[in-house]
Amino acid sequence: MLTDTDRDYVVLGETRTYSFEAITRAIRLIDAGARFIATNPDPTGPSAEGPLPACGSVAALISTATRATPYIVGKPNPMMFRSAMNRIDAHSETTAMIGDRMDTDVVAGMEAGLETYLVLTGSTARADVDRFPCRPSHILDSAADLVDLVRWRRGAQRLSTCRMTIRVSIDVTPGVSLIAWTASCSSAWVRARTRIS
Q1: What Å distances lie between residue 119 and 55, 95, 167, CA to CA?
Q2: In this predicted model, which residue has the larger pLDDT, 170 or 126?
Q3: Is 44 helix (H, G, I), strand (E, B) or coil?
Q4: Architecture of domain 9-72
Q5: Residues with Cβ < 8 Å from 175, sequence gap 6 or more?
Q6: Topology of domain 78-196, per CATH?
Q7: Does residue 140 contact residue 119 with C-beta atoms inside 8 Å?
Q8: Which H helix or E strand runs over 80?
Q9: Rounded (5°) CA angle 159-138-188
Q10: 66-99 pLDDT, tens per residue?
């Protein structure tokens, strides 16, 4: 329940409109005993104009002021993936993580035992990949390249027995829409279904 006093938690999420007043209130609530939770540690997010401060940057500001470290409930915490897979009855062998950040998306996918796809349309450039101790399973220029990866096994296996769950975690640059990508995936799904049936 949301209240103005005696809060148990302060939850910091992603927005493009952080206010000084809200940050100040969060600091005071945490100092008064509220526990600090953040959705992700991303320091920046992409935009058409260049990087923008993201949840991790604001969390660092609040942490510095309060000496409280937030519990990260989203990426790279693998608990998010395990909970989601349990809820939809999926398995790590048939689930993939698609994202544009090595430090959260790919790490989270790897720690959850998933195949990982790094798309180069966001925060991580191809030249940055070597800086990390981990490697994605696949590197793609954009999410649109995933459409070409839709393949189905031939033979007796029917679509109803195929299960592939894809978690999409891509920061969308203003003016760029995933609607066309979703439509392309839907089209590929229908074509694959027609071939199998």
Answers
A1: 21, 16, 13
A2: 126
A3: strand
A4: 3-Layer(aba) Sandwich (3.40)
A5: 48
A6: Rossmann fold (3.40.50)
A7: yes
A8: helix 78-87
A9: 30
A10: 999 999 998 888 888 888 888 888 888 888 888 8
